[in-house]
Amino acid sequence: MHLEEAKNAHRRNVLVQWGVVIGALLALAAILVACAPIEAPAGSAMATETATAAPAEATEAVAEEVATEAPAEEVAMVGDPERGGYIFAMTTGCGCHFNRDLGAPAGGNKFEGPFGVINVPNITSDPETGIGTWSETDIVNALRLGVRPDGSQLHPIMPYMAWSALSDQDAYDLAAALKMVPPVANAVPASELASPPAAFAPANPPPAIAPAEGAERGAYIVAVANCGRCHTPRGENGAPDMSRMLAGAPLQDTIAPNLTPHESSNLSFLTEEQVASFLLTGIYDDGTPVEGPMKGIIDNGTSRLTEADALAIAQYLKSLPPVASE
Ligand code: HEC
To answer: Using CA atoms, how far apart are residues 24 and 37, in angstroms rounded to an integer?
Structure first.
């Protein structure tokens, strides 16, 4: 190799190495931001989430189907932590796990209700008290099926029902990002549940690849971000009323507004650009900043999306069938 060429090659190598280091640091920063605390709403919709009871046979049938279609262990899937940082933002983060004293998602927060006491676990990579010994596949199964490596079922307060829609690649990327969270030792006692959570089988197998653009992409993000947990009204049994999906619902002392383009809703006259701009900045069209529970969703989630993804959400919301608010 010519001396000049060799020098250039060396420079390129150095640049690539710095690129990798900077990439890893950016990924870590993205994850830590995504794990920033959210106001864990006591007695919120999240706490009253009920499992749509899936009969054991159905679980097995789906498990078999999934096994023949895409056996998780056999897919040579490797997560990309840098992309995973972005997927964290898409799922609006892991604030419930955030321990303010320890400054890390080291768990310890408590949810109490008729379901018993849930102690939110440590999800840092500490091998003793966190999930440091879990493989990426173990993490993916917890995220999408709510199953721990020992086969036990997690309570549906953990939004695996929403995350069951995550594509294989996105789930593995998220898992890879989670594995980069530095270990923080914090032993969290086991939860004490009134009854064991029902087994969960997703209605549809997750897509191998997430939709790339347009309203379909928006539907995907709204599903994995679980926007419906506040914006979809619930029936008497506490389960979301999917016939009125995203049609608005009371939330603590406020209202999560109707996100369908019904004439009674702001979505009927806001343009896609205006909705996207709100999701990216948290500022309404008239200049007022968002407050309350939506603020955390924007700060930890949608403000960190690309413009294209924010527009995809807006496009999807505007394409929904209009449903009147109750
Ligand atoms: C924790 C509950 C919660 C979640 C989750 C949530 N929102 Fe909201 N959202 C609210 C509340 C409450 C408001 C009203 C805020 C206000 O009064 O300023 C709101 C307002 C909005 C608005 C403004 C509507 C209007 O009438 O101008 C949009 C758009 C919106 N949310 C979209 C979303 C999307 C998209 C997601 C998922 C990425 C989402 N929200 C997730 C609670 C939530």
So the answer is: 22
Atom of ligand 1 nearest to the CA of 278: 29
Cα separation, 113 vs 124, in Å, equals 26
Closest residue CA from atom 22 of ligand 1: 257
Kindly report, residue by residue over 140-167, the tens digit of the pLDDT.
Answer: 999 999 999 999 999 999 999 999 999 9
Q: Which long-range contacts (CB under 8 A, 24 or more apart) does 242-251 make?
A: 244/323, 244/326, 245/320, 245/323, 246/222, 246/317, 246/320, 246/323, 247/323, 247/324, 247/325, 247/326, 248/325, 248/326, 249/45, 251/41, 251/44, 251/45, 251/293
For ligand 1, the distance from its centroid to the CA atom of residue 110, given in whole angstroms, is: 24
Q: Is the CB of 257 under 6 A from ligand 1?
A: yes
pLDDT digits (tens, 9 = 90+) for 64-83: 444 444 444 555 689 999 99
Question: 276: Cβ below 6 Å to ligand 1?
Answer: no
**CA distances to 79, 207, 225, 241, 243 from 165, in Å:** 17, 7, 10, 18, 19
What atom of ligand 1 comes closest to residue 258's alpha carbon?
26
Task: Kindly give the number of the ligand 1 atom that is closest to the alpha carbon of 38.
Answer: 1
Least Cα distance to 73 among 132, 141, 9 occurs for 141
Q: Is the CB of 162 under 6 A from ligand 1?
A: no
- Please write the tens of the pLDDT for every residue from 102-133: 999 999 999 999 989 999 999 999 999 999 99
pLDDT of residue 62 exceeding 50, the answer is no
